[in-house]
Design a protein that fits this description.
Structural class of chain B: alpha+beta
Number of helices of chain A: 14
Organism (chain B): Auriscalpium vulgare
Strand content of chain B: 5-15%
CATH architecture of the largest domain in chain A: Orthogonal Bundle
Protein name (chain A): Cyclin-like protein
Strand content of chain A: under 5%
Organism (chain A): Auriscalpium vulgare
Number of domains of chain A: 2
Oligomer: heterodimer
CATH class of the largest domain in chain B: Mainly Alpha
Number of helices of chain B: 13
Low-confidence stretches of chain A: none
Protein name (chain B): Pkinase-domain-containing protein
Mean pLDDT of chain B: 78
Chain lengths: 284, 424
């Protein structure tokens, strides 16, 4: 084994660098989720392997326990994380492909929050010119962001993905015949990649949480009365399970239009700074 | 990570964390504390009442003594630790300039430990941080073993183009040692070295890492007779099935390169490292490299001469290899191991021939080789502590110029990069 993957320490969780810069916790959580959505969308457009996308999302979440969104935009960081993880998973993407895809995603996001009239006109992507400054600016941010991720995480890119273990757990619980349960649990694990849980809890805990949500939603009974609690088979603690479930369920809460456009408009560090400055008597 | 206290603000922050985490080892109450911090509010969620009410019981009845090896306690996971500055080290002297970086000897300013700093060349990177450097760092971090050189941390300089891998400093490399030592290693010493090499290689292979550049100059040895495999600059992960999209043939220094790579195989596996181990075994016996060829064709003919040309029984897949058609095989002839290694026991010859076997599928694995009778017959392997010590060239003493082996293949980073991946 390659040693245990790193997890955030108590003080890293208590005071995230973004919160120290005055970014409220709910906004940080939404920005983290949005950054991971961008990574996911880019991964789909680039036809990248899911292991690369998941690795990128986990590195992205870790990064913001040692860095503030005021210093590093979620857009750039998402781009750097995906570029790095494509190499880590031996499926490197071309820099230009990655930049084009993120440019498209940035433009589309900007379009949805443009102050123009309602309803919004259809989105039209305008490609960048081959030698234009947009490309070189994005390339510069990409290279810097990749390096910052490596440096601030101490070059420790040890990431453990949950998929294989989920299959084992489902087998052990005798649930592999329930296709709906397997795919639902799999889906929760993927959705959890948009939350910080992979930077906070060990993989067995996260998988147990996904199974808990699955079995509750599908009304599948499992032994849950002490001293016979199924999650103890996997060395998970009930409180941890429940916390992870909370993180996942909060993703599905309907966001108000204001909340949504607030997040989309804060992809860059400059946007974050502007927002922080514009808040009257903001801090604390 | 080395160094517990440092002047910088960042480090002292981590030190505080460490204290926290140590306090955590008394588990249950702490877990709760942590959870409360993580989770500010849960008002908009389905009530957990039925289960929460059972929780205290469950926690108290929970007298589980230990965690399973697969789910160790939360507190054992390291926190996120940013790279320190290279100025945490004092540079002493440069050791060598390798194929893709300079190696310095340096001193940790806090602990006084002597370390080796390998500077990565990042100036002309067109693809961001090089994938080969990522592979090297990950291989070193993922293959910790007493016979693999220990990685301590990765530190950075003032600009983003200065990155250094910090490793344990090891006094000798086997190649220099073989050139300067007055008499060859004894059989008992060779057995110890081979056992150490094989257990390191077995460990790497068990962790899905191919080294792809095993040679005597990449084997380090300290003054206590302990061998360490170093330089994972060409290492990469492999899978099962092996390298689906094909892997580069630009690996392994020529003299140690397995015949299937020479003949252009697109997929290869752990057996390429085992061939190199065979070449190293022979080199320890002969006190000079086994195949000192100038080019690939000459190397092949030297291999044909020692092993006898491959036949459809000794290597069934030979004719299917890309470059096999371009080679004219010499007329059949028996192998010449016995003539070449006159003083080796039958078991020793058998091990050597099992390593230097044409067919990669039949070549001995590291795990099998560790069980080979050669290691149990007399003389027994010498205890590492009984090795004599030597003056260290890397620590600054003048050394004689060693015979120069060809350089490692040019790093496959740039254009070759894309051919060296498992394609989609």
């Amino acid at each position: 084994m390659a040693g245990l993957p790193p997890l955030a320490s108590l003080s890293q969780i208590k005071n995230t660098p973004s919160s120290l810069d005055g970014i409220p916790a709910d906004l940080e959580e939404d920005l983290r989720a949005y950054g991971c959505k961008l990574i996911h969308q880019a991964g789909v457009l680039l036809k990248l392997k899911q292991v690369a996308v998941a690795t990128a999302q986990i590195l992205f979440q870790r990064f913001f326990y040692v860095s503030s969104m005021k210093q590093f935009g979620i857009g750039d960081t998402g781009m750097g994380a995906l570029y790095l993880s494509s190499k880590l998973q031996e499926c490197p993407v071309k820099m230009r492909d990655l930049i084009n895809v993120f440019d498209l995603l940035f433009q589309r996001a900007a379009h949805t929050v443009s102050p123009s009239s309602h309803p919004l006109p259809d989105f039209k992507y305008s490609p960048m010119s081959y030698f234009g400054s947009t490309f070189y600016d994005l390339k510069e941010s990409l290279v810097v962001s990749e390096m910052q991720i490596l440096k601030r995480l101490g070059f420790n890119t040890n990431v453990v993905l949950p998929y294989g273990t989920l299959v084992n757990y489902m087998r052990l619980l005798g649930l592999t015949s329930r296709e709906d349960a397997v795919s639902r649990a799999w889906g929760y694990l993927n959705d959890a990649l948009q939350t910080p849980v992979y930077a906070l809890y060990a993989v067995p805990t996260i998988i147990s949480a996904a199974i808990l949500l699955t079995t509750r939603h599908l009304d599948i009974p499992l032994p849950s009365t002490p001293p016979n609690c199924w999650w103890e088979l996997f060395d998970a603690e009930w409180e941890d399970l429940w916390t992870v479930c909370g993180y996942i369920m909060r993703l599905y809460r309907e966001r108000s239009p204001e909340e949504r456009s607030r997040v989309v408009g804060m992809m860059g560090k400059k946007d974050v700074r502007r927002w922080l400055e514009s808040r009257p008597n903001a801090s604390q | 990570m080395s160094g517990s206290s440092t002047p910088s603000r960042k480090r002292s922050k981590w030190d505080a964390d460490d204290d926290d985490d140590q306090g955590l080892s008394a588990r249950p109450p702490v877990q709760k504390r942590r959870v409360k911090v993580v989770k500010p509010s849960r008002t908009d969620h389905p009530s957990p009442n039925p289960d929460i009410s059972r929780l205290p019981d469950s926690a108290q009845n929970n007298t589980r003594p230990t965690f399973s090896a697969f789910a160790p306690p939360r507190a054992l996971h390291p926190p996120f630790i940013s790279s320190r500055s290279v100025y945490s080290y004092e540079r002493l002297n440069s050791i060598e300039e390798g194929s893709y970086g300079v190696v310095f000897r340096a001193k940790d300013k806090q602990t006084g430990d002597i370390v080796a700093l390998k500077k990565l060349k990042l100036d002309e990177e067109k693809h961001g941080f090089p994938i080969t450097a990522l592979r090297e760092i990950n291989a070193l971090m993922g293959c910790r073993h007493e016979n693999v050189v220990g990685i301590r941390e990765v530190v950075v300089g003032e600009t983003l183009t200065q990155v250094f891998i910090v490793m344990d400093f090891i006094e000798h490399d086997l190649k220099t040692l073989l050139t300067v030592m007055p008499s060859p290693f004894l059989q008992s010493e060779i057995k110890t070295l081979m056992l150490q090499l094989l257990s390191a290689v077995a460990h790497c292979h068990a962790n899905w890492i191919l080294h792809r550049d095993l040679k005597t100059s990449n084997l380090l040895m300290n003054n206590r007779g302990s061998l360490k495999v170093a330089d994972f600059g060409l290492a990469r992960r492999y899978g099962d099935p092996v390298g689906v999209g094909g892997m580069t043939q630009l690996v392994v220094t020529l003299w140690y390169r397995a015949p299937e790579i020479l003949l252009g195989a697109k997929t290869y596996s752990t057996a390429v490292d085992m061939w190199s181990v065979g070449c190293i075994f022979a080199e320890l016996l002969l006190k000079e490299p086994l195949f000192q060829a100038k080019g690939e064709i000459e190397l092949l003919s030297m291999i044909f001469k020692l092993l006898g040309p491959p036949t459809s029984t000794s290597w069934p897949e030979y004719s299917t290899l890309p470059l096999a058609k371009t080679i004219t095989l010499p007329s059949p002839q028996p192998h010449q191991f016995r003539q070449k290694f006159q003083y080796l026991t039958t078991a020793g010859i058998n091990l050597l021939m099992s390593l230097l076997t044409y067919d990669p599928d039949r070549r001995i694995t590291a795990d099998e080789a560790l069980q080979h009778p050669y290691f149990s017959e007399s003389p027994a392997p010498k205890h590492p502590d009984m090795f004599s010590s030597f003056p260290s060239a890397a620590a600054g003493e003048k050394r004689r110029k060693p015979f120069s082996s060809p350089p490692a293949p040019v790093r496959a980073a740039d254009q070759k990069l894309l051919s060296d991946v498992d394609g989609p």
